[in-house]
Design goal:
The protein is mainly alpha-helical. The protein has three helices and no strands. The protein is globular and about 35 Å long. The protein starts with 7 loop residues before the first helix and ends in an 8-residue tail after the last helix.
């Protein structure tokens, strides 16, 4: 029996799905609103809210 090693893209996809499942309902709502928004500035607003809520104030988004 041969065990195949997961490739890095599969690992990243699994990590992404696990992190999404840990998002708060508020964060999920902001992401849904970002997807529905037409204005880039409104999309940016919602995405920044998610990042700041989940990663905290230590993240510098302007770099």
């Amino acid at each position: 029996m041969t065990v195949e090693k997961e490739d890095s893209s599969t690992t990243r996809a699994c990590d992404y799905l696990q992190s999404m499942s840990r998002l708060s309902e508020e964060a999920k709502t902001h992401l849904e609103q970002a997807l529905q928004a037409d204005e880039p500035s409104e999309k940016d607003f919602h995405i920044r809210n998610v990042l700041q809520a989940d990663f905290g104030p230590d993240v510098d988004f302007d770099d």
